[in-house]
Design brief:
This protein has 257 residues and is an alpha+beta fold. The protein has helices at 10-19, 24-36, 69-79, 125-132, 146-159, 206-218, 233-238, and strands spanning 2-4, 43-47, 51-56, 59-63, 83-86, 95-104, 118-120, 164-169, 176-185, 189-197, 223-228, 241-252. The protein has a 12-stranded mixed sheet, with helices on both faces. The protein is globular and about 55 Å long. The protein starts with a strand and ends in a 5-residue tail after the last strand.
Length: 257
């Protein structure tokens, strides 16, 4: 049986979220944001006794394996979900794209970051968006409603203290050319995302410097994690991240609804 989660399910949601390294921080933050603003466009559902689903626009996140896969597939169709991030299980017919969970490990040797001209800790959301869109449409597993949805989501998280974004300028009065952020700062884990450098300014070590600054700020009291495509794992290893045994999938529904 699938039902919308209520207040008595908060402990179940937090337990599932905190056990899902690299995927769970967003759900934990969204739960806290919903408590402050119930009108936010996301909902939690208990899927039987073993799985948790968060619905956000045309996307969603699934933790656990539904007991009735046919029922859950029909439920996704009813909601119009076309993109799904999961911790390993997908409904039949979905096209998976593997995601590696990597976690910052202070014990690992790291390459010293190159110095950057100007590191800014709180650039304006509009400038962040300009960098993120410099390589094309925003496509991150955490955000499924295009640039407008991403901008609104980012502003809410920044305003409530659940996100922190850094940027690089090549001159104090110059445009932002690189950005990275902790987009979900939970009680036990900070999830990094939005790592992007304008195509004309790549190869200068800006992204590595931003990630290093974020890891120094949040590692220790929190685990710092991110999701990446397999080809990027070696890059993050050089920065001091260790591959986690946790698995994740980013999936698209190929058939029209």
């Amino acid at each position: 049986m699938i039902r919308e989660a209520a207040g008595q399910d908060d402990a179940f949601i937090l337990e599932k979220a905190r056990a899902a390294t690299g995927i769970g921080p967003r759900l934990e933050v969204d739960l806290r944001l919903l408590a402050e603003n119930p009108k936010l466009p996301c909902k939690f559902y208990r899927v039987g006794q073993s799985a948790l689903f968060e619905h956000t626009g045309v996307g969603g996140t699934l933790l656990g394996t539904p007991e009735d896969s046919a029922e859950f597939s029909d439920f996704l169709t009813l909601l119009g979900v076309r993109q799904l991030t999961s911790d390993g299980w997908l409904p039949p017919g979905w096209t998976p794209d593997p995601l590696h969970v990597v976690v910052f490990d202070p014990a690992l040797p790291t390459a010293p970051p190159k110095p950057v001209p100007v590191l800014e800790e709180s650039p304006a959301p509009g400038e962040i968006m300009a960098v993120l869109e410099s390589s094309g449409p925003i496509s991150t597993p955490a955000i499924r409603d295009g640039a407008e949805g991403f901008y609104a989501d980012l502003c809410v998280r920044l305003n409530h203290g659940y996100a922190a974004v850094y940027g690089v300028r090549e001159a104090p009065d110059g445009p932002l050319v690189s950005t990275a952020g902790a987009y979900c700062i939970g009680a036990e884990e900070a999830y990094l995302s939005g790592v992007e450098t304008h195509p004309e300014h790549r190869g200068k070590g800006y992204a590595a410097a931003l990630l290093g600054a974020l890891c120094r700020r949040y590692s220790g009291p929190r685990r710092v994690s991110l999701l990446c495509r397999p080809r990027l794992v070696p890059y993050y290893r050089k920065l001091g991240f260790a591959q986690s045994p946790a698995k994740a999938l980013d999936a698209a529904r190929p058939d029209p609804l």
